[in-house]
């Protein structure tokens, strides 16, 4: 008898995580002798712990296909960290109870570094508690900070959105700068790694184009050098476009913009670096400014997704199932770059042990010597990731996105489990 599969989305969602879901579900449907139903966790792993499973077999082939052009997490995501086996054995025993009750033998967990840690821990349950479980991670994170894989699904589309928005706003401020606004600041996500901020640099084609300054989390904020650079840009070009990462740090190591809140993983909630930078420009240099905080807009922007990103997101979901069917375990499919230009890639694999909790930062040779721009090597890496458009269908002037039925699987245990 085929075992059922559990699939869940975890962490911050992206505009293409549902394409990975489509890859998993459509591929699993091709192997009815090996994989039974795909049950999705409502709100990630919490759906498993609380026996809140979604029966994806209730969804038509058309609905699942429509996930490829629908942003967000169709089944709900979560920020919830499973503790170590020793610290919270009850959680793992509960997962096994649920998996046994629903005859689940495959675990596909779609997320970033923290989530791959969850996948890794679940993959160890088999050994530790004597329950056979095939466990495959599916990579995702706009932050692009997973190791081994060439890039992470979600990033290429955010990179495209940020590069497009930087270029468009740069055109705007350039036309206003003679008599009005001289500085435009765009704040982008990427808590610790500057990949998204770096993508803003793709907007620049010729000398004088924006962005003139990028502030990376990898480079400590140097206020005097920054103000000097803003002044120079206004003197030379009449205006200055700045891309600032939410993760920029002060010399004392604290974030420029920390809200004071922390999530379940202990990560500081960030946001507001653009406000701080813009006000500094006004108070120290007297320039009129506008600023924008791209926030959720950047990671929800499916309308301007990168075709490369959509294709890779789907392929990685598909590969996860192919790996499981081939009997592999405790791995994550990864993108392997074969060549830069033309961009060629294939699917490889990474051990979950090597991926969990590792953050890949922007390498030094991707940042210019002055710390405010990207190098040609960075451009070569980034460029193919934003290539191609994959517009969603439009209805009444708006993108048409699918909302699944998300029918619950009948509970078998019906016992309460308190989420800590
Ligand atoms: O998942 C990564 C990320 O998008 C970060 O870049 C950002 O700082 C964070 O999520 C925001 O998380 P949340 O949506 O949980 O506030």
Question: Top keywords for this entry?
Answer:
35% helix, 420 residues, alpha/beta, 4-stranded parallel sheet, 5-stranded mixed sheet, 15 strands, 2 domains, Rossmann fold, binds 6-O-phosphono-beta-D-fructofuranose, single chain
* Total of helices: 13
Class of secondary structure makeup: alpha/beta
How are strands sequenced across the largest beta sheet?
3-2-1-4-5
Major β-sheet annotation: 5 strands, mixed
Structure description:
The protein is α/β, with parallel strands linked by helices. The chain contains 13 helices and 15 strands. The strands form 5 sheets. The chain has a 5-stranded mixed beta sheet, with helices on both faces. Helix 5 links the parallel strand 4 (104-111) and strand 5 (134-139).
Short description:
This protein is α/β, with parallel strands linked by helices. The protein has helices at residues 17-28, 45-49, 61-66, 89-101, 113-129, 155-176, 195-200, 223-237, 273-285, 295-300, 307-325, 352-355, 376-382, and strands at residues 3-9, 35-41, 53-55, 104-111, 134-139, 183-188, 213-215, 240-245, 258-262, 268-270, 289-293, 331-339, 344-351, 394-395, 398-399.
């Amino acid at each position: 008898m085929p075992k059922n599969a559990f699939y869940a989305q975890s962490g911050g969602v992206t505009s293409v995580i549902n394409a990975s879901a489509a890859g998993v579900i459509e591929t699993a449907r091709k192997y009815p002798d090996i994989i039974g139903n795909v049950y999705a966790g409502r709100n990630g792993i919490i759906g498993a712990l609380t026996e809140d499973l979604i029966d994806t077999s209730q969804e038509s082939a058309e609905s699942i296909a429509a996930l490829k052009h629908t942003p967000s997490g169709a089944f709900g995501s979560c920020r919830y960290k499973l503790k170590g086996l020793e610290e919270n054995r009850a959680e793992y025993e509960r997962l096994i109870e649920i998996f046994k009750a629903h005859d689940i033998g495959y675990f596909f967990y779609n997320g970033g570094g923290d989530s791959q840690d969850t996948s890794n821990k679940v993959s160890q349950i088999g050994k530790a508690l004597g329950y056979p479980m095939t466990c495959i991670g599916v990579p995702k994170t706009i932050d692009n900070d997973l190791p081994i894989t060439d890039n992470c699904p979600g990033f290429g589309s955010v990179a495209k959105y940020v590069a497009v928005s930087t270029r468009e706003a740069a055109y705007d401020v350039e036309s206003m700068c003679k008599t009005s606004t001289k500085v435009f600041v765009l704040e982008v996500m990427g808590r610790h790694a500057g990949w998204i901020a770096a993508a803003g640099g793709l907007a620049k084609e010729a000398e004088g184009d924006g962005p003139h300054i990028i502030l990376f989390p990898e480079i400590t904020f140097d206020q005097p050098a920054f103000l000097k650079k803003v002044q120079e840009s206004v003197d030379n070009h009449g205006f200055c476009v700045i891309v600032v990462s939410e993760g920029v740090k002060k010399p004392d190591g604290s974030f420029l913009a920390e809200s004071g809140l922390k999530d379940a993983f202990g990560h500081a909630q960030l946001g507001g670096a653009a406000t701080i930078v813009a006000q500094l420009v006004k108070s120290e240099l007297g320039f009129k400014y506008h600023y924008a905080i791209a926030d959720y807009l950047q990671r929800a922007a499916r309308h301007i997704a990168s075709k490369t990103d959509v294709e890779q997101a789907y392929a990685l979901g598909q590969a996860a199932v192919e790996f499981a069917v081939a009997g592999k375990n405790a791995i994550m499919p990864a993108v392997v770059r074969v060549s830069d230009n033309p961009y060629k890639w294939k699917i490889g694999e990474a051990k979950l042990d090597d991926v969990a909790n590792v953050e890949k930062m922007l390498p030094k040779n991707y940042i210019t010597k002055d710390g405010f721009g990207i190098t040609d090597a960075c451009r070569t890496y980034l460029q193919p990731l934003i290539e191609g458009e994959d517009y969603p269908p439009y209805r009444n002037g708006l993108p048409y996105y699918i909302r699944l039925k998300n029918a619950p699987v009948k509970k078998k245990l019906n016992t309460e489990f308190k989420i800590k």
